[in-house]
Design brief:
Blueprint: E1 3-7, E2 12-17, H1 22-31, E3 39-44, H2 48-59, E4 63-67, E5 76-81, E6 89-90, H3 92-95, H4 105-112, E7 114-118, H5 131-139, E8 143-147, E9 150-154, E10 163-165, H6 171-181, E11 187-191, H7 197-208, E12 212-214, E13 221-224, E14 232-235, H8 240-253, E15 255-260, H9 268-276, E16 280-283, E17 287-292, E18 302-303, H10 315-323, E19 328-332, H11 343-348, E20 352-356, E21 359-363, E22 372-374, H12 378-390, E23 394-398, H13 401-406, H14 410-415, E24 420-424
Parallel strand pairs: 2-15, 3-14, 6-7, 10-11, 18-19, 22-23
Antiparallel strand pairs: 1-23, 1-24, 3-5, 4-5, 7-9, 8-9, 11-13, 12-13, 15-17, 16-17, 19-21, 20-21
Helix pairs in contact: 1-2, 1-7, 4-6, 5-6, 6-7, 8-10, 8-12, 10-12
Bound molecules: uridine-diphosphate-N-acetylglucosamine.
Residues 23, 26, 99-100, 126-133, 168, 170-173, 312-313, 335-336 line the site of uridine-diphosphate-N-acetylglucosamine.
């Protein structure tokens, strides 16, 4: 199995191209099931999760072509054509690898009237049920049965408009219901919706395909069903989690880095916080420029929450920064239970962290020490890479397949700005 070797201590200087957002791209791919015309997605990231969604869509008979970008910063273009849905079966073997596979349920029910989708797996961060998705589809007139680890969903006469309030502003449930409602009969009113930028990106694409959606980016989304959607060419938004990760990388290692294509608007909470603790982030006409001088960052508390608050997907990376900050900080995780799996690995590198329930108390140390560590989930593993950038000596991150799910060419991007980092093939 591949691993990543990092020798810490280098400041970062130069440019990093930001890829298209994984969490938007996956949902846009699933949305291609809603039309019998071709959907072309530009600015596609090249990631293992995109490969998993490709495998899944091919099972349903979607015709797929990819035009590869030539080098770093040259994204892929993907053409998806679901002329007919040949099967609506999403097998356990694919869905278990990636929870976002479950997002095919809405488009399949809306266009095909039935689906058999495995209950999801994905990152081991808490229970992560799909009850909100299922209750929402039931409210839209679908019958749902659970058998042998599968969801059997049926809406033979089509989905019907309804009013449904999510118990929590779930990203996946909001997006799944949205993609069901665009072809439903009548009006659907969704309350307590996710307002995440990727959810808005999906909504904008659906509108461009002919859907009637109002209220994107607010907690109430109103959708008037239409008879059919058309094909589209649509650019995937820049990845705000990759952006935030490289902002934190610069804050932790020090230096000057320009993130090409990055947007400040989707990273407001992180940028506001880092500016208070000694890192400057400015919008340029090409992206975001990030600067930290040699001074140690100041410790500052944070609480994760739904957008526009601080994202849970940057919690582990921010914790790596707090490990070397001046003072003590408290990091509270409110979105997922059990999302502190990086803590014992950071502790192996000399970090001082105490976890009590959903709060991690981090006492900053002057230096971390390189060590062999183990990636446990997607975002946790990148926090170990960030810690390695500033640790004394060598850090080896094992099980990097977690990183490959969500970070395109991480080691190339970081070595391009001066980090000593390489992939070692097993
Ligand atoms: C998405 C993102 C993930 C991010 C998360 C929160 C993708 C592919 N993944 O995941 O990177 O960390 O949003 O910003 O876009 N819940 C239920 N029942 C449900 C659905 C969710 O209890 O039916 C709970 C979850 O267990 C979790 C919370 O709601 O505690 C938030 O989950 P949700 O917003 O649905 O996250 P995902 O869509 O899975």
């Amino acid at each position: 199995m591949d691993r990543i070797r990092i020798r810490g201590g280098n400041r970062l200087k130069g440019e990093i191209p930001i890829s298209g957002a994984k969490n938007s791209a996956l949902k846009l791919m699933a949305a291609s099931l809603l039309t019998d015309e071709p959907v072309t997605l530009t600015n596609m990231p090249r990631l293992a999760d995109i490969g998993a969604m490709t495998d899944l869509l091919m099972q349903f008979g979607v015709n797929m072509n990819v035009r590869r970008g030539a080098g770093l910063g040259q994204s892929d273009t993907m053409r998806l054509h679901a002329a007919r849905i040949e099967s609506a079966f999403a097998p356990y073997d694919i869905v278990r690898k990636m929870r976002a596979s479950f997002q095919v349920l809405g488009p399949l029910l809306a266009r095909h009237g039935e689906a058999k989708v495995s209950l999801p797996g994905g990152c081991a961060i808490g229970a992560r049920p799909v009850d909100f998705h299922l209750k929402g589809f039931e409210a839209m007139g679908a019958t749902i049965e659970l058998a042998d680890g599968y969801v059997l969903a049926s809406a033979k006469g089509g989905l019907k408009g309804t009013t449904f309030e999510f118990p929590f502003a779930s990203v996946g449930a909001t997006e799944n219901l949205m993609t069901g409602a665009v072809l439903a009969r009548g009006r659907t009113v969704l309350k307590n919706c996710a307002r995440e930028p990727e959810t808005q990106d999906l909504g904008r694409c659906l509108i461009a395909m002919g859907a009637k959606i109002e209220g994107l980016g607010t907690s109430e989304i109103i959708i008037d069903g239409v008879d059919r959607l058309s094909g589209i060419e649509y650019p995937v938004m820049p990845d705000r989690i990759e952006t935030g990760t490289y902002i934190i990388a610069t804050a932790i290692a020090g230096g000057d880095v320009e993130l090409i294509g990055a947007q400040a608007s989707s990273n407001g909470a992180l940028i506001g916080l880092l500016e208070k603790i000694g890192t400057e982030v400015k919008q340029t006409n090409r992206g975001l420029s990030v600067h930290r001088n040699g001074v140690r960052p100041t410790a500052m508390d944070v609480k994760t929450d739904v957008f526009p608050a601080f994202p849970t997907d940057l919690q582990a990376q921010y914790m790596a920064l707090m490990c070397v900050a001046n003072g003590t900080s408290h990091i509270r995780e409110t979105v997922f239970e059990n999302r502190f799996m990086h803590v014992p690995e950071l502790a192996r590198m000399g970090a001082k962290i105490h976890v009590d329930g959903d709060v991690a108390t981090v006492t900053g140390v002057e230096t971390l020490k390189g060590a062999p560590v183990m990636a446990t989930d997607l975002r946790a593993s990148v926090s170990l890479v960030l810690a390695g950038l500033v640790a004394e000596g060598e850090t080896i991150v094992n099980r990097v397949y977690h990183l490959d799910r969500g970070f395109e060419r991480l080691e190339e991007k970081l070595s391009g700005v001066g980090a000593e980092i390489e992939r070692q093939q097993a």
